[in-house]
Amino acid sequence: xxxxxxxxxxxxxxALEKILxxxxxxxxxxLGVGHLGSALLxxxxxxxxxxxxxxAFDSDPRKVGKQINEIPIFPVSALKxxxxxxxxxxxxxxxxxxxxxxxxxxxVDAGITCILNFAPVALNxxxxxxxxxxxxxxxxxxxxxxxAR
Length: 149
What we know:
alpha/beta
């Protein structure tokens, strides 16, 4: 820039939002409608960040066909069809560690290449798939260091 001339902050903000993908609405699915999955479906704050949870999936027939926060719950077998119909870009895994790898493979098979993984297990996925792991126990454990001081 030129000294004293300043920047057009509005244009800079728009350019950064475009680079970060914040200029779009991203459709998201949740796999696993237990306590954590239900909490994610109930959280209204995702929309403020351009994230729109459009569907959830579970293997429990008692949950399938119901809704949480107006978000429909489907059987896992419907993921591929529903994710294409709903133009899903991101999947959230909120299953047990035991089921997480299988669920990750189902997401990848459905063409979803961005996954937020809440299961406390490392997932094996193709190189082109981006995984963000969130292990809540580890996060709390790291805070215990500060609590012990």
